[in-house]
Amino acid sequence: MSQEKFDPVADSERDAGSLVGDLHNHQLFAKTRWRQQLLRWGVEERGIVPVAPEDRTDRHYSKVFFVFFSANFNILSFSAGTLGPIAYGLGLRDTCLVILFINLLTNIPPAYLATFGPRLGLRQMCQARYSFGYFGVIIMSILDIIKCIEWKPYLDVRRLLSQLVPRTNRFKSVGIVIIAIISLFVSFCGYKVLVWYERLMWIPVLVAYVVAAGLGGTHLINPPPAEPATAAAILSFASVIAGFVISYAPISSDYTLYYTPDVPAWKVFTYTYLGLNVPIILLQCLGASFTVAASAVPAWNDGYNNGNVGGLLEAILSPVGNFGKFLTVMLALSATGNIAITLYSFCMSFQVFIPQAMYVPRYFFSVLAIAIIIPLSIVGQHKFYDALSNFLGLIGYWSSAFCAVVIVEHLVIRRGNFALYDLRYWNDYRRLPLGLAAIGACLLACGLIVPSMDQVWFIGPFAKTTGDIGFELAFVATALFYVPLRLVELRFRRLV
C-alpha cells in the first residue's frame, strides 16, 4: 500500500473534509466490493481522522447520556460497590458516602473533556497530541490499549453464568463468546449502532435490579453495625472508586465529536456528568447494601462466598425461579454495554499507537481486540488474572495524570480558547508539541505517586499511614510540574 499520493503530514494545509476523502481512497481494501457494501449499510469507517465542521451535524445531545449510562448500568458498577464492606471493612454509611462524593468529584474531568469533541472534532487521544505531542501520546495510547483489553468484565460475567450451570465450564465459555460477539457487532458497526444499542440496553437491566431490590428490600432496612472506619480504609476505597470512573477521561470526546460545534458546553457536560454519576452511584450503593446485608442472610452469604458477585445476585433472584435465571442472564448481557464502548475506543487508541494504522478501516481493530480478549477471558482467570489485576492497579494512576496535562494545557496554556488549536497540524509531528513537558511532568509526579500507592504487591511509606492517595497526588503533582515545563518547551516550538 503506497502513501506517495497522500501524506497528511506533508500536506497539512488541507482541511479535515478533504483529508477524509483522500484517506478513504488510499485505505486498505478501498476498492473492494464488500467494503463498499459495508459503507452502504452505514458501518462507520472513521477512526482518528478529524470530523470536519460541516460533518458535525448531530443535535441529539442526550445520546452521550445513554452511552455512559448503559456502559455503567451493569454488574460492573454493582461489583465495585461491594469492595467497600468486603475489601476495606467499611460500614454501609461510610461506603455510600465515599461512593457519592468521590463520584461527584472524579466524574468532572471526563465530563469536561467530553465538551472538547464538538469544538474540535477530534478523538480524545488525538486531542491529547496538542499537549503530549505526536510521539508522547503513544505512551498514553499503549496504557489505554492495555486497559481496554482487560478481561475483568468477562470474569464477572463468567462468575454470574456459573450460577446457572455450576458444573458446566463449556456453558460459561460459550456465554463469554456470545457476549463478546454481541459487543463486537455493536462496536464494529460504529457510532450510530452503538448509540442505538446503549439507548435500549439499560431497560432490562433496570427490571432486574428493581426485582432484586424488591425481593431483598426487607433485609436492607437495618444493616448490621460496623467497626469505625479508618482514614486509610476510606482513602484506599476512594482511590478504587476514583479509578473506576476517571478512566473514562481518555475516551470522553470519542462520543461527542459528531455534535454541532455550536452546542452549549454546559449541555454536553451535564449529559455526560449525569450519564456517569446516576448509574454508578446507584448501583455501587446497591452493591454495598446487599453485601453488608449478606452476612445476616445465610443464602446470600453462601452465594457471595469468596467475593462471588454473581452468586450473590443469583441468590437474591432465586425466589422467582426461572424468571430469576432469565434476569441473571440479562445482568450478564448488561456487560456488553461497557465492553462495546471499550472495543470502540480501542480502535482509536490503536491508531494513535501506530499512526499508519489509520490506513486500515476502524472496524478491523475491534476484531483484533476481541481476538485477544476472548482467549484471555476463558483461560485468564486460571493463569493471568491476578498478575494483570495487580498491573492494572499500577497503570490506573495514569488516567489522573492524563487529565491533569490535558486540562491544564487547555485552561492555562491556551486560556480555554479552542481557536488556539490549529487543526491543520493534528497529524504533523513537526508542528505538534514535543511532548517532553507532558511526559516529564508525569515522570516527576511518580516521585509522589509511588510512595502513596497501596497495591497488593507494594505499599508505599505514605500509604502505610494515609491509605492510597496516588490518584489525588497524580493529578495535583502532574498539573504543578506541567506548567513550568510547558512554558520552557514553548521556547523551542511555538504553540499550534
Describe the overall structure.
It is found in: Membrane. InterPro entries: Pur-cyt_permease (IPR001248), Pur-cyt_permease_Fcy2/21/22 (IPR026030). The chain crosses the membrane at residues 64-88, 95-112, 132-150, 171-194, 200-221, 233-251, 326-347, 359-379, 391-412, 432-450, 470-488. This protein has one domain (68-489): Hydantoin permease. The relative contact order is 0.17. Helix 3 crosses helix 13 (191-220), helix 6 packs antiparallel against helix 15 and helix 11 (152-162) runs antiparallel to helix 18 (322-333). It has 25 helices and two strands. The radius of gyration is 23 Å and the shape is globular. A hairpin with a 2-residue loop joins strand 1 and strand 2. The chain is an all-alpha fold. It has a two-stranded antiparallel sheet with strand order 1-2. Mean pLDDT is 85; it is low at 1-18.
- Looking at this structure, what is the CATH superfamily? Hydantoin permease
Strands, count: 2
Q: How would you spell out the order of helices and strands?
A: HHHHHHHHHHHHHHHHHHHHHHHEEHH
Task: Supply the helix-strand structural class.
Answer: mainly alpha
Count of helices? 25
By CATH, the topology is: Hydantoin permease
